[in-house]
Amino acid sequence: MQKYKICPSCRSKNEPTLLECLYCEADLTRVKITDEETEKMLEENASTSPASSEKATMIRVCDCGEKNPANARKCQACGEDISDITPTPDEVTESAPVSSHAYVLSSLDGQYAYKVFCDETVIGRENSMSDYLASKSYVSRAHAKLTIEGGLFYIENLSGTNFTYVNNKKIIAKTELKNGDELGLGGTNINGKCQSEAAYFLVRINQCM
Q1: By C-alpha distance, which of 29, 32, 4 is closest to 19?
Q2: Among residues 102, 129, 105, 107, which one has the least CA distance to residue 117?
Q3: What's this model's pTM, rounded to 2 decimal places?
Q4: Which of 23, 35, 129, 158 is deepest in the core (most CB within 10 A)?
């Protein structure tokens, strides 16, 4: 019997190995794997147990994967407007580890946000964040490595030709990223102007409730 993950945001069915929804990019890391028989049984139980469904916590899941209260107007992780996202029941796997912080890189224009889930993540034009970085020629294919260690967030430059900057300063070694830092991949902010072929982000580190 085919197994899948049901997206908590758009309710689409996804392959069980996916960590984010193919259709709306919502976070699937804490979504239980199910099948048609189990889904049907759960629906039947829900229809005969209205009290239990009323107790379900309703949330708004941002495109960055952050779960927000149902009445939230902006994402608490990346600041994106989520007022048009329909609240859905919170589906949390009890055995899944829950980080005490959310680590997000948000583009300066607020049009893109990337939530870091893994302890080590390589970003670049042909790695994670490639959907945003592919057109940035100053960004290398494997540009930098993001690391989460002991609740702290770090970045390390991997490129020998295009460098990495934190708050407009080129980094030489692994550098801790703090909330509000400005990250530049392949370029600096010159006289208040960003280089169009580089990529710039604000670091958002938020305490999870």
Answers
A1: 29
A2: 102
A3: 0.54
A4: 129
